[in-house]
C-alpha cells in the first residue's frame, strides 16, 4: 500500500527566505507526483505535476524535484511572500498502476510566511 | 465557467440522519472523485467515477453511496450518519492533466 509522508508538518519563515518542503512515498513505482496548495476553508489548487520520466518541474518561483529511486520529492519556493502562506500537500497515485487518478495524499505542510 | 460546485457548504446532522452532498461540474470531465479530509490529515478517497453510469469504491467507502447518472453530477449519499463521518468533503474532477477541486462541504455529525 502506498504511503505518503510530509515533513515538517509546519514551517514558519520570514518573508524573502526560500522554502523547502519534503514529501516521501513508499512505493517508488509511481507514474507521477503532484503538489497542491490548500488555503484555509478552501479547496485544493494544483501547483505542479511531475511525470515519472521527469526529474523536476518549474512554474515561476516554484520548483519541484522527483527522485523515484529514493521515494522522495521536494518542493522549493523561492523568495517566499506572505501570500505563500497555506498548506501544501503532495499526492501520488493510490496504486502503482494508477496513472490518472485516485490519489494518495500526504498530511501536508502548513506554511506561514511572516512579513 | 464555475468548475466544480459543491452544496451545501456547511451542515450539521444528528446521528442516524441521512443527507446527500451535491457535486456539479461544468467542465465536461469524465473523471470525478469524492475525498474526505479529517483535521491534520491528508485527503482520503471515498468513491470515484470514470464516466456516467460507472462508479467504484475508493479507500474509505463504508457508510457512503454514490451515483453518476450524468456527466455533470456526482452526488454522495450518507444513509445513517455517524460521528466518525464528521469531516470536510471535497469533490474533484481531473486526472493526469491536473485536478480541479470544489470548495468543500464541512459536515458535523452530533
Low-confidence stretches of chain A: none
Derived from helix and strand composition plus strand pairing, the structural class of chain B reads mainly beta
Number of helices of chain B: 0
Helix content of chain A: under 10%
Mean pLDDT of chain A: 91
In words, what does this structure look like?
The complex is a heterodimer of chains A (115) and B (110). Chain A is mostly beta strands and 115 residues long. Chain A is built from no helices and eleven strands. In chain A, strands 2, 4, 5, 9, 10 and 11 form a six-stranded mixed sheet that branches. In chain A, strands 1-3-8-7-6 form a five-stranded antiparallel sheet, with no helix packed on it. Chain A is globular, with a radius of gyration of 14 Å. The model of chain A has no long low-confidence stretch (mean pLDDT 91). Chain B is mainly β. Chain B is 0% helix and 53% strand. Chain B is built from no helices and eleven strands. In chain B, the strands form two sheets. In chain B, strands 2, 4, 5, 6, 9, 10 and 11 form a seven-stranded mixed sheet that branches. The relative contact order of chain B is 0.33. The model of chain B has no long low-confidence stretch (mean pLDDT 93).
